[in-house]
Structures are given as C-alpha cells and as structure tokens.
Design the sequence.
C-alpha cells in the first residue's frame, strides 16, 4: 500500500511539473498555479509516507527475538523536548526480585523564553494506572534539600506508555539552569529468565554530553547483561556486554557510561536472571543531596525516558 501511494505521489509530481511548465510556456497563469499546487501536495504526501514508514519500523523493534513492547509503544508517541537543553543525565535502576525502582536526574538549562515543566515518559509492559504509581520529583535547583516533593501530572492518555509532566517550583527563564530528580515506582513488573530495562532520551539537540545508567541487582546475579542502542529509525546495534562494576553482599551493580550520546535514542539492557529464591528485605536506592544514593522503598517495572 505504501509503495502504491509513493507511486501515485511520484507520477502526480511529474504531472504537476509538466502542467506547470505548460502553463508558463503558454502564458496560462492558472495552469502554472495548479501545477505548483500538485507538486507541493505530492511532495507532502511523499514526506508523510516516509515518516509513517519510519514510525511503523520503529514500532516493531525486536532484540534477540524478544519484542520490546514498551519501547515500541513509546516510539509511536515520541515528541522531542525543544525548550530545554540537557547537559547531563544520570539513571539508576534497582532490580529487587520482581520489583524495580528507577531514578532520573537531568541537568541543563532553558533555551526558550520561558518553561514551566519538564516531561518524562513511563513505559511498561503492563498497564498500571497512573493513580497507582508511586512517583515523586524534586526541583533541585530551587529545592536542593528536597523539602518540597512534586507530584508529576499525567499528560495525555493513561496506558502502557504514559507521559508525565514535572512542574518546576518556579518557571525557568532563558539560559536559566535546572536540575530535576524523578523517582517512580511500579511493583511486581520484573520476571526471571530473559528480561530487559530501557533508558530513553528524546530531546531536540544533537547529543547529551554526559550520560550514565546504573543497573543494581539486589538478589540473583544475572547470567549476562548486554547493552543495545536503538535509534528512532528502528535500527538496533549491540554496544557491549556489561560486567559487574561492584559486588557486595550479593548485590551486583553494572555501569554504562557514555559521552555525547545521541539525544534521540534508547538503550536497551537485556539480561537473564535465575528464578528468585527469596523476597527482598529492605528497600531500593534513593537520592540524598541530589545524588543517586542510599536504598529507598519498593520498585518499578517501567521504561522511563526523559522526554
């Protein structure tokens, strides 16, 4: 069907060009106008068809035969942030048996005349209603001691892929820096065997200068962990195998660091874990003084992307 539309648009472009030339040579202005309109319309159809093909291609993403459903849905609703320039992103994911807690810290500055909020996305394989999510954020620029918790706001439909908005405590002016911390919890979303975690970026800039993702497994060391990079076009490439950076008391942490990472991309962390032998005691890791730090409460099964 797409090839048929492309063919029609191509021949309409040719026809419009011929009609336009005929109008010019015959001094028929209305012929030239019609020809120009046909050409413009045909080019618009071609551009739209190409965009739709890219969306469909990005929505059937598979890695090692595994469909990355949460990322597929998020890709269809991707909308790059154009008002903020992000200079650094820190992401911590604590996997505790069936639970996962995710923290995002983003720093940068405002390039618009005014900005009142920052958007993130939460994408999970299961549809957990927004009202059931344990999400909290802090505007570290205006509240470095985290005394004023911010409840994110749902933007758009409440489904497997959600967009949330974190209002700043005070609107940003042009060139004003920002520092935002988000913690979101969805319980019971991880499973044994082959599973994945994704970290997405969607900003209207070429690259993010500083990028880090830390995966912490509180129980059950994974057999392997691999990092894949996914571009908006749907292309996937294996970046590397990860090995434990630290290991203590049965807790393993894997670290993925990057510089000048594409600001419109996603990283998929694919791993295989044995079946859990016991439930986690205690909590996941939290943030102190604006840094990703000590354990906190329960966890979240989601793909949270800074958008």
Sequence:
């Amino acid at each position: 069907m797409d090839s048929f539309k492309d063919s029609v648009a191509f021949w309409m472009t040719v026809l419009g060009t011929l009609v336009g030339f005929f109008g010019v040579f015959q001094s028929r202005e209305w012929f030239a106008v019609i020809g120009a309109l046909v050409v413009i319309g045909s080019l618009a159809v071609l551009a739209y068809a190409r965009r739709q093909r890219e969306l469909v291609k990005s929505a059937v993403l598979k890695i090692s035969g595994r469909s990355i459903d949460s990322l597929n849905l998020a890709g269809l609703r991707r909308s790059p942030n154009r008002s903020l320039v992000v200079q650094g992103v820190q992401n911590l994911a604590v996997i505790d048996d069936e639970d996962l807690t995710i923290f995002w810290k983003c720093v940068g500055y405002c390039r618009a005349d005014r900005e009142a909020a920052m958007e993130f996305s939460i994408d999970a394989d299961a549809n957990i209603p927004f009202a059931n999510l344990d999400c909290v954020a802090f505007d570290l620029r205006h509240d470095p001691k985290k005394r004023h918790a911010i409840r994110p706001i749902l933007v758009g439909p409440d489904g497997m892929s959600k967009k949330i908005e974190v209002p700043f405590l005070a609107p940003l002016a042009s060139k004003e820096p920002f520092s935002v911390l988000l913690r979101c919890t969805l319980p019971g979303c991880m499973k044994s065997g082959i599973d994945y975690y994704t970290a997405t970026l969607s900003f209207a800039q070429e690259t993010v200068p500083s990028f880090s993702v830390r995966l912490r497994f509180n129980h059950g060391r994974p057999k392997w962990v691999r990092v894949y990079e996914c571009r908006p076009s749907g292309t996937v490439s294996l970046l590397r195998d990860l090995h434990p950076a630290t290991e203590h008391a049965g807790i393993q942490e894997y670290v993925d660091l990057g510089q000048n990472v594409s600001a419109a991309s996603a990283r998929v962390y694919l791993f295989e874990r044995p079946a859990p032998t016991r439930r986690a005691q205690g909590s996941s890791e939290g943030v102190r003084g604006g840094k990703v730090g000590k354990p906190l409460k329960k966890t979240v099964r989601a793909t949270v992307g800074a958008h």
Observations:
- The radius of gyration is 23 Å.
- DSSP finds three helices and 17 strands in the chain.
- The mean pLDDT is 76.
- The first strand starts at residue 62 and ends at 63.
